Amino acid sequence: MVTPLFASFDALATAVVLFDTNMNVVHANPAAENLFEFSCKNVVGHHFSEIFQDSAALAEAIGYAQRHGSTFTEHDLVLGTSNHGRMHLNCTLTPVDFAGSSWLAEFRPLDQSLKLAREERMLDQTQANRELLRNLAHEIRNPLGGIRGAAQLLERELEKPGLSEYTQVIMKEADRLQSLMDRLLVPHRLPRPVSVNIHEVLERVRSLILAENPEGLRIRQDYDPSIPSLLADKEQLIQAFLNIARNAAQALEGQGLITLRTRVLRQVTLARKRYRHALMIEVQDNGPGIPENIRDKIFYPLVTGRAEGSGLGLTLAQNFIAQHHGTIECESAPGNTRFISILPLTSNEA
To answer: Residue-wise over 198-235: b if at least 16 C-beta within 10 A, else e?
Structure first.
């Protein structure tokens, strides 16, 4: 049962963990659950050293605060959990005396302000990408129609049938570019929201990717079955996560593991708007990772690490996610690349 004192911490956007005199967890608020990817229910009663990895610096900070009996802040504390990699945090320890708690620990990611700035830049970049793609597509479509029409007329006038091979090449390439232009214009259709089960979307993606890679590729499902339906455009979400998963399969060259993961997040801010609940969808692969020289540009149009790639799949995925008021980001290292999308759960909160 959550006491009123604990409930007041649960409303905070800052990650807060309460400890007793022995530094066993008494309570963790939703922001802490999201940050460290653990459940309050599973960590209550456990010593901090059982929960946090690389906790030596935290132990020193706790020891200093206990010896002096006063508030102490450790800057650039490196900490992690079994469910989350190492993070750089500011940690403030404050002595308290209520509800069985003796110490209050506030954790603030050092990159939180950088993340907000990055999200704003990404929104601006997404809008710029849309305009660029729309203008580019419109400029190219008309000349393509003229090229294809001229090739058809030329084919009728050819005296040697064998020469039609060349006009066929022109028409096929024009058709291929026309298809590409159509794909560029698709994101500009506004979403048509209906009640969507995200796991039906991901299962559709899984079946398509496995059909394209029948041998050597494994896709693991790590779903939270408690996730409710959300209001979204089902086809756009399928296309977005299909593009991301296909990108992972191509990086693996059809040999490796992709994990599709879903979780509910609480008290999430997206584009400076606060939501009580949000949906996290993660596509993870154990491939070689994204080349460092393009890691910060992978959502830009026409940027690709593959010679045969169009560089549009992730751009389109980002556009679709943004149209649903969500965010997408990527963390990549050899053996562990994660595309993390967060969508607001607004079906019962509008």
So the answer is: bbebbebbbeebbeebeeebebeeeeeeebeebbbbbb
Q: What is the signed CA dihedral for 204, 207, 213, 217, rounded to 10 degrees?
A: 100
Q: Please give the C-alpha separations between residue 52 and each of 166, 191, 349, in angstroms, as whole numbers.
A: 66, 41, 34
Report CA-CA distances (Å) from 95 to 31, 38, 106, 152, 215.
20, 24, 12, 82, 57
> 248-265 pLDDT, tens per residue?
998 898 889 999 999 988
Scanning the chain, the segments in alpha helix (DSSP H) are: 4-10, 30-36, 40-43, 48-51, 56-68, 112-157, 164-185, 198-212, 234-252, 313-323
DSSP per-residue codes, 198-243? HHHHHHHHHHHHHHH-TTTEEEEEE--TTPPPEEE-HHHHHHHHHH
**Residue 349 pLDDT class (50, 70, 90 cuts):** very low
Provide the CATH topology of domain 191-344: Heat Shock Protein 90 (3.30.565)
Q: How many CA atoms lie within 13 A of 152 on its CB side?
A: 9
pLDDT (tens digit per residue) in 87-115: 878 888 888 887 777 889 998 887 655 55
The residues facing 274 across adjacent strands are 269
- Res. 165: pLDDT tops 70: yes
The ranges assigned to domains in the chain are: 4-110, 114-187, 191-344
pLDDT at 50 > cutoff 70: yes
Domain 114-187 has CATH 3.40.1760: no
Q: Both tokens of residue 142? A: 């008309």
Does the domain made of 4-110 have the CATH classification 3.40.50.300? no
Average confidence score pLDDT of the chain: 81
Element (H, E) at 328: strand 327-333
Where is pLDDT greater, at 230 or 113? 230
